[in-house]
Amino acid sequence: MMRPLLSSCRSVVPATALLAAALTFTVPAAAAPVADLLELPAAVNARAIRSLQLAVTRAGERLVAVGERGTVLLSDDHGRSWRQATRVPVSVALTDVHFPTPQLGWAVGHSGIVLHTADGGESWERQLDGKLAAQLALDDAQARAGEQAGEQAARRVREAESLVADGPDKPFLGVHFVDAQRGWVVGAYGLALGTSDGGKSWHSLMGRIPNQRGKHLYQVHGDGDLLLVSGEQGALFRSTDGGASFAEVRTPYAGTYFGILRTRAETLMAFGLRGNAWRSTDAGASWERVDTGQPVTIAAGHPLKDGSLLLGDESGRLLRSTDDGHSVTALAVPPAAGLTGFAQAADGALILSGPRGLTRVEPDLLVSELKK
pTM (2 decimals)? Predict the structure, then answer.
């Protein structure tokens, strides 16, 4: 059966393939409790390469993908073949992965897990889980309540107490490190934490982000001191001081944003549900809608080597922009239905992640399309 990890009185989790993949997981009727999955190492499975993969990224020349049941896949031939990493300490679904260097990487997932590797993804260790993340949120809320009296401070304490009481059941959905020391993770119900020592210690950001309703946060992206966080119900937040403080970025769209990019020309481009994509050339003060051609949820976005932008939707369409996000054109490449993410390999190929594993789009095919 499918057991939703996110449930509330709000109708905030639409029935899309991306959310179904990221926020639910398949378990048998007699499945182990969450706490046991945090202690159960990922099983080595010959069919893992065809299992649900939720994210893929570059680690130098290597490609690293993460997915269900703690699966981590590695490729050293630009995505032509894959092997499973055999030293992963948990069996929860992993939802995102990022490498600021070829050797140092972080993966996040269900039950508030944060994993770290120092050998390019061969082996992983646990740095954070949902219990500790909730306690850090409570410690921060209580400290702020001691400094700032009022109903808002008291409400944050109550919400943090609920996180602790719920146990380690809230997933992280996004991770980003700008270097070997500074990184951030975001997730369900507004969970957001940062580290300045490579994950040896973490601090809560929930009191710094003006996310009063605890909207789910799906992605964090940064470059230097600029951080951009995207989430549900039109949630966009920006920090210009490396996460010390955040401001809300208002847009004309009130639906979920799964990501936000900053182009080489400093343009912001946010994308999400029902084919919505919006761009701003004035740091978010005003926005214009980008016509994506059809109302299908855009699950991923990334700049390519040539400076163009690429978006991918759940039908498997790939949309490229060569004019700083002003317009997009669909590429005539085989679609990968249920697309959850993509990365460009060192040889120029495009690697797509999804419900049936990973698909490689050959460089020749991609280049011929990009030249049109």
Answer: 0.89
